[in-house]
Design a protein that fits this description.
alpha/beta, 2 domains, 11 strands, 9 helices, 19% strand, D-Maltodextrin-Binding Protein, domain 2
């Protein structure tokens, strides 16, 4: 059903973020580190245990070896459901997109651990190849398929692109279609489709729609994905976690990128996660009138 945009309406508890511990050159002494008996891992954009196992099973196995800890998956129902889980100490480590990070940081006191670079990570907006639409301003009065509310590359940033082009929120309609955006576009159920460049390429190829879809705009590079930790974990353990992941990033990232859903990480690296790396995205929330979501 077509509908006007409804921005994030998820209700999370509490506020205020904490400063993140920095990477250290040496792991803290094992005797002084309070290590959990196991580590519960969530991925914000993956729903269901079966999908988690399929997409992140190899990564989980290598991470267990690196951390010398058993790891169990914690499935979440939506992009921000990890917030209440962090607050309730039901999950310890969360792999999140940039938008989810801002929410988890503000509302769940999530501690940045490691950022995962995403070379060539940007938003695209596409139309049918035979469409008369040539620019973003031509989307006034049109309907745009996006992925899901709060998705950085497939909701928040495309909205910024539209606003930067001079459109207002009321000038266009959106419908959140998860992975069905390209199918809806080809079937003429929507006028345009917004997603990340990597997902766009993957879904267009899977739908056999290469000749039927045309990109009209590519956005600027987006902030990195990020691992965050439960704030009540021992800070020395978080430092140890950071160092082990950085020291073993080659095999961890190879494992992550080994599944079809994660090919986007083939050229990724682990880098120190700094909160100010996400200030530009914070500005986007302000520009679209949604700054309360990340406060």
């Amino acid at each position: 059903m077509m509908k006007r945009r409804n921005f994030l309406t998820y209700s999370l508890l509490f506020a205020v973020g904490c400063s993140s511990p920095k990477l250290t050159d040496a792991t803290a002494g094992e005797a002084s580190v309070k290590r959990p008996e196991n580590l519960r891992l969530a991925v914000t954009d993956v729903q269901g245990l079966a999908t988690l196992e399929a997409d992140y099973g190899p990564f989980k196995q290598v991470l267990e070896e690196v951390l010398e800890l058993p790891i169990e998956f914690f499935p979440v129902e939506n992009l921000v459901a990890a917030g209440p889980a962090l607050l309730a100490s039901e999950v310890d480590l969360v792999f999140a997109g940039p938008s989810e990070y801002l929410i988890l940081r503000a509302r769940a006191e999530a501690e940045p651990v490691i950022a995962v670079t995403r070379p060539d990570y940007y938003s695209v907006i596409a139309v049918r190849a035979d469409s008369e639409i040539q620019s973003l301003t031509d989307l006034k009065g049109k309907t745009i398929a996006m992925r899901t509310e709060g998705a950085t590359a497939a909701h928040i940033w495309p909205t910024k692109l539209l606003l930067d082009a001079g459109l207002k929120i009321e000038d266009f309609q959106t419908t959140m279609l998860d992975d069905d955006g390209v199918n809806a576009l080809v079937a003429r159920e929507v006028d345009a489709w917004a997603d990340s460049n990597s997902r766009h390429a993957r879904f267009v190829e899977a739908a056999g729609a290469t000749e039927q879809v045309r990109i009209i705009v590519e956005g600027a590079s987006l902030p990195n994905d990020i691992f965050v930790a439960r704030s009540t974990l021992d800070p020395l353990f978080i430092q140890d976690l950071q160092k082990r992941m950085v020291d073993n990033q080659t095999k961890l990232l190879e494992a992550m990128a080994s599944t079809p859903a994660n090919g986007k990480y083939q050229l990724s690296t682990f880098i120190s996660a700094a909160d100010d790396q996400y200030d530009e995205l914070r500005a986007v929330y302000q520009a679209i009138g949604q700054e309360a979501v990340i406060q």
